[in-house]
Amino acid sequence: MKYHKIDKKLFVNNRKRFIKHLDKNSLAVFNSNDIYNTGADSTLPFTQHRDIFHLCGVDQEESILVIFPDCTKESHREILFLKETNEQIAVWEGEKLTKEKAFETSGIKTVYWLDQFESIFRQLVIECDQVYLNSNEHLRTNNVMQTREDRFVEKFKKDFPQHTIKRSAQIMHQIRSVKDPIEISLMQQACDITEKGFRRILNFIKPGVMEYEIEAELIHEFLNNRSKGFAYTPIIGSGNAACVLHYIENNKKCKDGDVILMDFGAEYANYTSDLTRCVPVNGTFSQRQKEVYNAVLKVKKEATKLLVPGTLLNDYHKQVGKLMEEQLVNLKLISLDDIKNQDPNWPAYKKYFMHGTSHFIGLDTHDLGSWINPIEKNMVFTVEPGIYIPEENLGIRLEDDVVVQASREPFNLMKNIPIEAEEIEDLMN
After folding, report:
1. pLDDT tens sequence across 363-372
2. I want to staple 266 with a disulfide (CB 3.0 to 4.6 A). Which of 43, 140, 193, 404 is the partner?
3. What is the CATH code for 181-428?
4. d(Cα 274, Cα 407) in Å, to the nearest integer?
5. What is the pLDDT of residues 110-158, one digit of tens each?
6. Looking at domain 9-176, does it have CATH number 3.40.350.10?
7. Is 20 exposed, middle or buried (0-12, 13-18, 19+ CB in 10 A)?
8. How many helices (H) and strands (E) does the chain have?
9. CATH 3.90.230.10 domain span(s) along the chain
10. Domain with CATH 3.40.350.10 in the chain
11. Are 9 and 55 in contact (CB under 8 A)?
12. Burial of 311 (0-12, 13-18, 19+ CB in 10 A)
């Protein structure tokens, strides 16, 4: 892995947090992701399942984690099952984790090879009262492919039809949403790498540059700083393309007089960052562009202050809608009559600001977290209001990643990344 070794205390602590939510005499099992084929003998680069990584830090395919806190055999209360390394694998793929290295990574003392899994797992299942199995229960998931975890659940139900099954996902949503200080530090590193990428392109952007050339500059900087790349597919949209919320073609020429919207972030150690900045292609905002830009920035600053413990996310988004409503009236994009006659299910401001303002971020760009429970200290959110005006060939979105604090406004992990319009212009000229 490109990233520096992570303190195993993070994973030890994460398992302790998970165990607190388990029913008595329960077992939980987590599987790695598959390696996905692209055709012939080619595969996509392996990406570890975020839940097993969160609990043990193992970043390797074909790994299984079993947690059984009440097991009579103390050595079997936490077990890692790994693919056994050998000389042939070392030559062709590189050496896999040894048992010693697995302990150094995870803090788990008991490590077996995969060929022992079936027999040991059966013994454990017979002893426990219920089993926690994992599944993807993210609100925005669209499962079209059966995963390694899915296949495991199917097999378990067939092999142990009388056992009570419980859901790990509910617990993972709760514990992953509140970040350990070590996690916040890793996310800060991802944001710092993102900053380097952004500063790199400010002097590169000019009329005639292709959007994909900007993308190339960013990935160069990320790889040079121990990131394996973009945390998600980047959006580099100039002119009217900035009004397409998930524009990813990145194949247009940047034109003089246009504003370019760039939504990107580096990953580091599987942790993500998520930044959006808008800059004038020629280095200077027009008066109207700056008006819209500053309106979005004002909403972003005020919205950030609302992310405090005890707040419900749905209430937060309604409050941000009111902030945006005021700015759109000032910009003469909507009127007081539009507001008076609006559909409560689709407020007038939605014509120009149609998406949400914040989402959880962490090991996933849209990380796990509950929308029905109040915000807590050390949750990390994006703040990303936007105004999109296709008729003016202009889209502005501004986004930072912030950590909720106990008694003051959130800490901005991207506080060092330029955002004021005048600062952007100064750096580009």
Report:
1. 999 999 999 9
2. 193
3. 3.90.230.10
4. 25
5. 999 999 999 999 999 999 999 999 999 898 887 778 999 999 999 999 9
6. yes
7. exposed
8. 13, 18
9. 181-428
10. 9-176
11. no
12. middle
